Description:
The protein has 12 helices and 11 strands. By secondary structure, it is of the alpha/beta class.
Amino acid sequence: MQLPKRTAALKSNQLINxxxxxxxxxxxxxxxxxxxxxxxxxxxxxxxxxxTNAGANPALVGVVKGAPTVGMTRDELQAFxxxxxxxxLNTSNLGHAIHxxxxxxxxxxxxxxxxxxxxxxVFATGGIGGxxxxxxxxxxxxxxxxxxTRHRLAVVTSGCKNILDIPATREMLETLGITVxxxxxxxxxxxxxxxTDLPVDTRYDDPHELAExxxxxxxxxxxxxxxxxxxxxxxxxxxxxxGNWLSQARTLPSVMDSKGRDATPALLAEIHRLSxxxxxxxxxxxxxxxxxxxxxxxxxxxxxx
Length: 305
């Protein structure tokens, strides 16, 4: 069932839509802010190839000089990587970037918004945002969770990022009415760890059967769906090892002095350094796995249109 495109949110700004059906949306933040710049093009190629190998078409999402773009070109991505500064766009500053004519890398929430406007129904990312640690002292909840209540996409992810309060994030997803599907798993994965003691709502082992449910549920609910796909076994990081790196990183001045949108990238950068790049390779492995599954789902969904 083809969903109607939502373009009113862009108002007078014209969406540049180069997505080719069946399409899989890919975010730019993971490339511009989540990896060393020298690895970004290589990883972009790998993600796109995973989608293509699964029978779908990759569509990189970003805002290019104020133009919301679904299906960025290689030259446009290169310009992002060459720039001294590229803003990280979430739902609170997306409109300003469009209005002011500046470029920005889209996060999960803004990738969902623009991809839905382009009629894309599947989005592959690494990990979604969620409820931050100590949120009861200083409330800090990612816009990603609320975007899932507004935008009709299946988001393929390896759970939420490990730096978050994972049980609280899983509870918030349930509170918001977001269906969490486990792909070949009965539990909500924890990004670098394949399993937790947190259940998913239901499990699917076959991409075609899962695509049938996605087709039904997106049309029924008007909300997004989380497809939880655990990190590949060969790249899983033991919880004790991860915890050691995390506790060390949180005491470093570069992390303690970072605020707002810069806090998470600063923390992750230090963890990547402390792990001698092991976490970067794990990030890439799980993102590739998610891109491949998303491609399979998009290809299967195209048979229902």
